[in-house]
Design brief:
The structure holds 3 protein chains of 3 kinds.
Chain A (H helix, E strand, L loop, with lengths): L34 E11 L6 E7 L5 E7 L25 E8 L6 E8 L5 E3 L15 E2 L2
Parallel strand pairs in A: 3-5
Antiparallel strand pairs in A: 1-2, 1-4, 2-3, 4-5, 5-6
Chain B lengths: L1 H21 L25 E5 L28 H15 L7 H4 L15 E5 L3 E6 L4 E6 L15 E7 L2 E7 L21 E9 L4 E9 L8 E9 L15 H4 L16
Parallel strand pairs in B: 4-5
Antiparallel strand pairs in B: 1-2, 1-9, 2-3, 3-4, 5-6, 6-7, 7-8, 8-9
Chain C lengths: L1 H21 L13 E4 L19 H16 L5 H4 L16 E6 L2 E6 L4 E6 L7 H4 L8 E7 L2 E7 L19 E9 L4 E9 L8 E9 L27
Antiparallel strand pairs in C: 1-2, 1-9, 2-3, 3-4, 5-6, 6-7, 7-8, 8-9
The chains are: A mainly beta, B alpha+beta, C alpha+beta.
């Protein structure tokens, strides 16, 4: 049987057709809070199962610090930003963007990235609510 | 004189044994693979890439308020008291936003049957003597030997010792000897187990070969008050598994210390 | 005579064991039989060019090599393939002093390496993906496509990330590297040979070849390898350093 390599343009067929959230519980992100943060891209760390955006931004106190935003898997899964048009070449170090994210509950500088807004107003990502999670079901049955 | 005689007898016996093998280099043991040579055999053609359907594989229900948060029902009477305490503690950590350790987040092997629950899917390779069960998360695989019985006392290992055979249209895999490392958890709830864990998995095709059902029977009286069973279902995937390297850029610093540590090795200089 | 009998015993036993290995391959698998467990009997932490001589560095390649070597020696550069057990990449995984198993089934040739529990899949009859389909998803092991030419498996690989070294000394490669391989059994199936051509103009002035030969070990069962845990004894492999 021949298989398609997971190619960017064949995304419609859903790489493995499964939700992304089974990577881990998203409880560490506060789904009820959304923050917009202006800053500059430092680096895109593009790896499976999670990619990260390193972002230099000033917090409330005006001090510029490094924020880390989780972007979901490189390929596959509805939360993967690549599913919503994200290409590595779209986001370069030095780009000035607005990151929209659900912050980490533990107070660390970062969170779950929802979208990126460019100076011309265009937006990458932005699907809300971020698709997540399997139904909390189990079909386990005791025997005997 | 006597020494020469026994050597001659042994070498003759071996030669007679080996002679037919000269002509049988590629012969498979009878009906051990689902191919044209075995047309009419019921051996299922499980080979290929399988995407996981929905549903968790734990013994208990997920009682969290959010679908993506994992909190096992620690009041379920199927759990022995010490296990209920573990599940309860983990559920409380989740609620507080401090993720508890789990193998897929910190790059430890997934204990069977948790390998079936991983999102990366499965890839199955069937050969006459061995079935390889590859998992798409973190390049893992389990090996199922078709031509050997269980060892009397297998050395405990992360995936245990798996032996298998075909029963008509079903591959039956029997696993014992799964180690009890703290990071050995058999489901998404982080459920531990004892050295006596015994798993039976039954792999079969349904829906005209488009779907694979794996019935899992979990038997571990020290962990569960009853044997229990659950079915994992998979659909054929049109795309190959992606490369997924857990230890590459794993940002555990973002999740906090509660999530634990990755396995690490000390650098040994080659110079 | 006793010597003749012993020789015949050895031959017959060898034949039985070898046949056991051959019978492991799925019937009707295409091409030659390269299935089974293979294990090198020697190891070099430094990648050795097949025809001798040094790696043909470009100035950029040499600078990167020296920087990597110095960094590995003083601890400022990490060898994550050894400390975190990320995948070694290609060709470095083929230098492994641990055994590996080749599985010919399901229309692909799969290499299961004990080291870092590495899985390398070489699809048959599937073309390499187009560069723009994979440029956002480079891999430690790249993307491979294999086809049989008689008894030789010819493999092309592209789409590598730049997160690995070519060897334990830190020889560099870029994400534009292309790898070609010719893999075949030797000596009636007692050995496996992989001749690899590395093509990376950014770091090397010309493509160069490296060659590995492995012995058949049907009696070996691969173990589960977890980073930092005790691993099997490698004393049978000459030259092991850095493990």
């Amino acid at each position: 049987m021949k298989y398609a390599t997971i190619g960017f343009l064949t995304f419609a067929s859903l790489a493995l057709g499964v939700p992304a959230s089974a990577h881990h519980s998203y409880a560490m992100f506060d789904a009820e809070k959304t923050i917009d943060l202006s800053g500059t891209v430092k680096e895109v760390q593009w790896t499976n199962p999670h990619s990260w955006l390193e972002f230099m931004a000033a917090g409330k106190d005006g001090k510029v610090e490094e924020w880390s935003f989780e972007m979901g898997p490189v390929m596959g899964g509805p939360t993967g930003l690549n599913r919503q048009g994200f290409r590595v070449k779209n986001v370069q170090p030095g780009d000035k963007l607005v990151a929209k994210f659900h912050p980490l509950r533990n107070g660390r500088l970062g969170g779950e990235l929802i979208s990126l807004k460019f100076p011309d107003g265009s937006i990458l990502g932005g699907r809300e609510p971020i698709p997540r999670g399997e139904a909390p079901s189990t079909s386990a049955k005791p025997l005997e | 004189m006597q020494q020469t005689a026994w050597h001659k007898r042994l070498s003759t016996a071996l030669a007679l044994l080996a002679l037919p093998l000269l002509f049988a280099a590629d012969a498979a043991p009878a009906a051990q693979t689902p191919d044209a040579a075995n047309a009419g055999s019921k051996i299922p053609d499980l080979s290929g890439i399988w995407a996981k359907n929905r549903g968790r594989l734990g013994a208990v229900k997920n009682v969290s308020p959010f679908p993506d948060m994992v909190m096992g029902d620690y009041t379920d009477p199927i759990l022995q008291p010490w296990v209920a305490a573990v599940i309860k503690k983990r559920a409380e950590m989740e609620k507080d936003g401090n993720p508890p350790p789990e193998s897929k987040m910190t790059c430890w092997p997934a204990a069977p049957p948790n390998t079936l629950a991983l999102i990366g899917g499965q890839e199955i390779l069937q050969t006459p003597k061995t079935v390889f069960l590859l998992t798409g998360n973190d390049h893992q695989w389990r090996t199922v030997y078709l031509d050997q019985p269980h060892s009397a006392n297998p050395k405990p290992s992360w995936y245990g010792e798996s032996v298998g055979h075909y029963e008509g249209d079903t591959l039956v895999v029997d696993t014992i000897g799964v180690n009890t490392d703290p990071m050995s958890m058999i489901d998404d709830f982080g459920t531990p187990h004892t050295p006596a864990l015994h798993l039976v998995e039954r792999y079969r095709l349904v829906n005209g070969g488009k779907t694979m059902n794996v019935d899992v029977i979990v038997d571990d009286p020290g962990t569960f008050t009853k044997k229990w069973t659950v079915t994992a279902t998979f659909n054929r995937s049109p795309t190959r598994m992606n490369e997924s390297v857990c230890a590459a850029n794993n940002r555990l610093d973002m999740y906090g210390p509660s999530i634990g540590k990755m396995p690490e090795a000390k650098y040994v200089s080659p110079f | 005579m006793m010597r003749g009998s012993v020789a015949l015993c050895a031959f017959a036993t060898g034949l039985i064991l070898t046949t056991a290995a051959f019978a492991q391959r799925a019937p009707n698998a295409e091409g030659a039989n390269i299935s089974g467990v293979w294990w090198a009997n020697n190891y070099s932490p430094k990648l050795l060019v097949a025809d001798g001589g040094e790696l043909p560095f470009t100035p950029a390649g040499r600078a990167a090599y020296q920087k990597n070597m110095a960094g590995l020696k003083n601890g400022s550069v990490a060898d994550k393939a050894r400390t975190l057990c990320v995948l070694d990449g290609v060709p470095r995984i083929l230098e492994t002093p641990y055994p590996f198993e080749v599985v010919q089934a399901a229309g692909q040739v799969t290499f299961l390496f004990e080291q870092n529990h590495t899985v390398r899949i070489i699809p048959l009859k599937e073309p390499l993906p187009k560069p723009d389909a994979i440029e956002d998803n480079p891999r430690f092991l790249g993307y491979s496509s294999g086809q049989w030419e008689g008894d030789t498996l010819v493999v092309q690989s592209i789409g590598f990330n730049d997160l690995t070294f070519l060897d334990a000394y830190g020889a560099p490669h870029s994400d534009q590297m292309k790898i070609s391989e010719r893999i075949r059994a030797l000596n009636g199936g007692k050995q496996l040979e992989d001749t690899i051509t590395v093509d990376d103009p950014k770091n090397y002035t010309k493509p160069f070849n490296v060659r590995f030969v492995y012995d058949s070990h049907p009696e070996v069962q691969l173990q589960t390898y977890v980073c930092g845990e005790p691993h099997r004894d490698l004393s049978r492999v000459k030259g092991v350093r850095g493990f």
